[in-house]
Amino acid sequence: MYSHADSHKRWWALTILCLGVLMIVLDTTIVNVALPSIQSDLHFSATDLVWVVNAYMLTFGGFLLLGGRLGDLYGHRRLFLLGLSLFTLASLACGLAHTQAMLIGARSVQGIGGAVVSAVALSLIMNLFTEPQERAKAMGVYGFVCAGGGSIGVLLGGLLTTQLNWHWIFLVNVPIGLIVFGLCMMLIPATRGHAPTRLDLGGAFTITSSLMLAVYAIVNGNGAGWLSAQTVTLLALAVVLMAAFLFIETHNASPLMPLSMFRLRNVSTANAAGVLWAAAMFAWFFISALYMQLVLGFSAMQIGLAFLPANIIMAVFSLGLSARLVMRFGFRMPLAAGLLLAAGGLALFSRMPVQGTFLMDVLPGMVLLGLGAGVAFNPVLLAAMSDVKPEDAGVASGMVNTSFMMGGALGLAALTSLSEAKTEAARVAGLAPLVALTDGYRVAFVLATAFALLAAGLGAWLLRDRPSPEEASAVATH
To answer: Is residue 49 located within the same domain as residue 130?
Structure first.
């Protein structure tokens, strides 16, 4: 893509691509520390507040695979710029939102733009760096940005919310998006798409609609009643749409998610473990932020700092420690060990007291969760791709990413709903408000612990070892 004389431009191009990806990564964590402020300002209920997170996650997960396919068809730079523009405009709308509906709608559009950017950025980097040594270095930078972005997100979210207000966690994306767009036009050559292929629009529509209906039914189950006509109808429609998705995928020549890959044991096991793990981790991030502010009285900045140990540990492991464990022990035992550590951290949070402190009741769980997630990330990714052909590695990676987003959305909705039900029952029983709130949070963390333990068990008993040295080395550079 570049001649030898101007090959240094590739590194500037990588910097710009990583800055664009960093915006997307930030948006998955920066919102969490501002959730209590958003709840207070826009008068969200505890269950409706979940949609500030889920609206983004559902569209992001639903359009990841389609975004990659569109990039192959119409050119990766074109789709990157389109996704970046959509994300930037949606960020502006989020920042200007003054109603619940406006914020949730804009978050949904943000998810679509973020999915497209994430899906094609990696392909652009692979095209920019064709020599193995340079490509490995570039992928290492990309992987560090993805892992370290969480740390920046929690700090930036706390700083902006404390010093300004929650609107700025979204508005900060606008100038960054404009700068990235202009520099991409200057530094990244246009690429042509491949031969025309039928787009699986039906698959994208049915799977996204099915999951959104299911999540909506779950988060509103307490208020509407679990056996009410609304809840039953929505869940029935979600099942019908899921059946339609499965039918489309088995009859489409170019499916969004090739279901035949789930016949491979490691692929199906890794995706199942990813769903359970994501359900536990998203619930941890969401509910622990609420616990720290609403029960312990932390400010938004203090919440950001509280998450920092876990995110730093995850980032450090992403630089190669996890991959070296995989190369020595295979991916089965590191995956199980990492998820067991994460389960231990969640179990510590499940005993959270009303009169808790950071050092005794928050930090130990944060450290264990950081270690667990850092150790388990690469093994999950390796396992998801270990049985597939090299030409299918991109699809397999997209599938496990989609499983993470969908598992996180559904798990967060279910655990938040159960937490709210427990809190309401405790209030009716006459417990003090903070005690009732904490009781509800504990229930969510107990179930999240069970999810992480089940994921660890699946990895330990069903995965087959081990990846080849080439596979482990490839993941180490991500």
So the answer is: yes
**227 and 143 inside one domain:** no
| Secondary structure letter of residue 31 according to DSSP | T
Structure tokens at 230: 């609304």
Helix (H/G/I), strand (E/B), else coil: 382: helix
Which residues form the domain of 48? Answer: 1-194
pLDDT of the chain along its 478 residues, tens only? 444 435 667 788 888 888 888 888 787 778 877 888 888 888 888 777 878 877 887 787 777 777 777 777 777 788 889 999 999 999 999 999 888 899 999 999 998 998 888 878 877 777 777 665 666 566 667 766 766 676 677 777 778 887 888 888 889 889 989 988 888 888 777 766 555 566 778 888 888 788 778 877 876 776 778 788 998 999 999 999 999 999 998 888 777 777 878 888 888 888 899 899 888 988 888 888 889 888 998 877 788 788 888 878 877 776 667 667 777 777 788 889 999 999 999 999 999 888 888 889 899 999 999 889 888 877 787 777 677 765 565 567 667 777 887 788 778 878 888 888 899 899 988 888 899 999 999 999 999 999 999 999 998 888 776 544 444 444 444 4
Is residue 159 within 8 Å of 299, Cβ to Cβ? no
Nearest residue to 150 (alpha-carbon basis) of 395, 1, 318, 359: 318
Core vs surface per residue 447-462: b (16+ CB within 10 A) or e: bbbbbbbbbbebbbeb
Cβ contact 53:179 at 8 Å: no
Give how far the C-alpha of residue 65 lies from the chain's centroid of Cα atoms, to the nearest Å. Answer: 14
Total domains present in the chain: 3
Give the ranges where 291-432 is alpha helix by DSSP (H).
Answer: 300-316, 322-329, 332-349, 363-385, 393-428
Q: What region does 44 belong to: left with phi over 0, alpha with psi -120 to 50, or beta?
A: beta
Gap between the Cα atoms of 63 and 113, Å rounded:
9
Which 3 state secondary structure label does DSSP give 49? Answer: helix
> How many angstroms separate the CA atoms of 80 and 341, rounded?
37
Alpha carbon distance 314, 302 (integer Å): 20
Here the CATH number for the domain that contains residue 342 is 1.20.1250.20
Nearest to 162 by CA among 353, 304, 355: 304
| Same domain (yes/no): 90, 67 | yes
**111 and 136 inside one domain:** yes
Report yes or no: 307 and 31 within 8 Å, Cβ to Cβ: no
Give the residue carrying structure tokens 């099915």: 210
SS3 137: helix
Retrieve residue 84's tokens.
């970046």
Distances (CA, A) of 74 to 123, 177, 193: 13, 21, 4
